[in-house]
Amino acid sequence: MFAIVYKEDRVPMCARLRESGPDAIVIWDSAPKATAFLESKGAEFVSGYVVVAISDESLKDMAQALGVKEEDIELVPFPA
Questions:
Q1: d(CA 53, CA 14)
Q2: Which of 4, 3, 7 minimizes the C-alpha distance to 48?
Q3: What is the pTM of this model?
Q4: Phi, psi for residue 22 in degrees, rounded to 5
Q5: According to the model, what pLDDT value does residue 57 have?
Q6: CB within 8 A of 72, min separation 6: which ones?
Q7: How far apart are alpha carbons 38 and 24 in whole angstroms?
Q8: Which one of 18, 28, 41, 70 is most buried, counting C-beta atoms within 10 A?
Q9: Can you give the pLDDT at residue 31?
Q10: Residue 54: which of 79, 75, 32 has the closest Cα?
Q11: Is the pLDDT of residue 28 over 90?
């Protein structure tokens, strides 16, 4: 699984799925699919983001960037 995060602060792309709690992190099942999504948005969009593999360390970084606990993170595949 792969997520797309802002290069500067590691905040992931998220989808609003509920009224309370953190937004769900959008994931792709392959790096090429995540990269293709980025590229479809244009060069300016691509320059601000990076594709990262979901791991314990990357989830920890994303949770910290979002200001939530790791266990509160929900992962939602794209397209949902």
A1: 15
A2: 7
A3: 0.86
A4: -70, 150
A5: 95
A6: 21, 22, 63
A7: 18
A8: 28
A9: 95
A10: 75
A11: yes
